[in-house]
Every structure is written in structure tokens, then in C-alpha cells.
Write a sequence for this structure.
């Protein structure tokens, strides 16, 4: 994939990044280099590589799935200017 000046200008506009006209050529070259590296990564054979979540081999600690904190809804809603049925009540903002 190759990016030209017009495409880089469009991407910069969509990203709300101000890029000077004189910098578009240089930026297009840089982005094309990055895309080249990404294409090289796509060529790497990863068929026999197991997915990993960390570079260190470790087991995740399991814990019981139970609520250890909470039950303060009434106390929290009591601080609100207005509450209803245990929830915050806010004024309607849609016309």
C-alpha cells in the first residue's frame, strides 16, 4: 500500500491534525515506511506460536467470584440533590 500527498492530507484532516503543505511529502514517506514494516510483519510465520499475554511465563491467580464491596447505593444517592428508587434523578435535557 502506498500513500500519496492527497491521502495524507485527507487523513490529517480526518484526524484534525494541522499539517503544512510543505510537510506532506515527508509525512507520506514516513507513513509509507511504517506501512512497509507492517507488511513485513504480515509475512512472519506464526503458525506454531502460542498466543501469550505476557513475556514472563506465569499463571493467573484465581479468586472466588463474589461481591466484596458494595451495598452503599442508599448512602451514595443520599448525597445527590435528587434521587428516586435508589438512582440519581436528573432533569430532562432533551427537548
Amino acid at each position: 500500500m502506498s500513500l500519496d500527498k492527497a491521502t495524507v492530507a485527507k487523513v490529517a484532516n480526518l484526524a484534525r491534525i494541522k499539517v503544512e503543505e510543505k510537510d506532506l511529502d515527508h509525512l507520506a514517506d514516513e507513513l509509507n515506511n511504517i506501512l512497509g514494516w507492517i507488511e513485513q510483519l504480515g509475512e512472519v510465520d506464526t503458525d506454531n506460536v502460542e498466543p501469550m499475554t505476557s513475556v514472563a511465563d506465569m499463571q493467573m491467580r484465581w479468586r472466588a467470584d463474589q461481591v466484596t464491596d458494595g451495598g452503599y447505593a442508599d448512602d451514595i444517592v443520599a448525597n445527590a440533590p435528587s434521587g428516586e428508587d435508589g438512582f440519581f434523578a436528573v432533569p430532562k435535557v432533551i427537548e
User: Anything to note?
Assistant: The beta strands are 83-84, 87-88. The two ends are 47 Å apart (CA to CA). The longest strand covers residues 83-84. The chain is about 35% helix and 5% strand.
